[in-house]
Every structure is written in structure tokens, then in C-alpha cells.
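Dear support,

I submitted the protein below through the web form. The confirmation email said the job was done, but the results page showed an empty box. After a refresh the structure appeared. I'm attaching both so you can tell me whether what I see now is the final result or a partial one.
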Amino acid sequence: MKAEKVVLSFIAILVGLVAAGGAFYFYQMTRTLPAGEDNPITTTKTKITPSPTPDKGNILTINSPKEEEVFDKKIITVNGKTAADATVIVTAEAVDQIVKPSTDGSFSLTQTIPDGTTIIYITAIFPNGEEKQIAKTVTYTSETF
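What the results page shows now:
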């Protein structure tokens, strides 16, 4: 007797859900909006359009070293390009070097890397306080391939 009541309760709930879902579907399919009115869910009074913020020439590109490059010498060259009025800081294994780019924005310096794999951080600091940083993973090994 109890099992029959539980089964009938589940069947009644299922039939109710199907009827409610069908009624909602029918309502949504037959509903019409007044002429000239957009969907009230997506319409806002003021349209907000995002606009990109200009970077004002605050760029940083690294030509060397390449990502995951393997070297057979401990002294490597780090070079790239940034804004001419930026300050470039190169950090590898807690050794910082600071360089000022030339008038065209190019910079170059030598960096000593330790044995094994290390990450070199190249950071450009612009006069407006903005910073851009690129990390390069490099490896030194004396093995030949």
C-alpha cells in the first residue's frame, strides 16, 4: 500500500511538471511584443560600447632570447624594442641590469645565466608609470645534441 502511494506521487509530480513546462513553452511561443519595442531583458536605456584604451606607444617586444631557447654559452644577449623614453630592467637569478633604450627604442645587453633552466624577466617601465613585463625561459647546457 505504501509503495503504491509513493509511485503515484512520483507519477503525479511528473505529470504536473510536464503540464507546467508545456504551458510555459506555449506561452513563450505565442507571446508578441508591442511594435518598436526590443527585448526588455537585453535593452538598456543607455547603450554602453566598450572602447579600447590606447597604449600610447607603450610596447615591449623581445627579439632575443627566444622562449625555451637552449644555449651552450653562459653569456647571452638580450635585445628588443620598447618606447624610447622607457627604462628596461632585465632580471635573471636575482641579478638586475638596467638599460635605457636608444632613440628608436631598441636595446641590447649581455646577461650571464646559471647552469640549467632559468627564467629571465624583461620589464619596461614607461614615464606614465605603466609597466610591461615579458618572461623568457632559457637553459644553459654544455652537452651537445
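Response: this is the final, complete result; the empty box was a page-load delay. DSSP finds one helix and eight strands in the chain.
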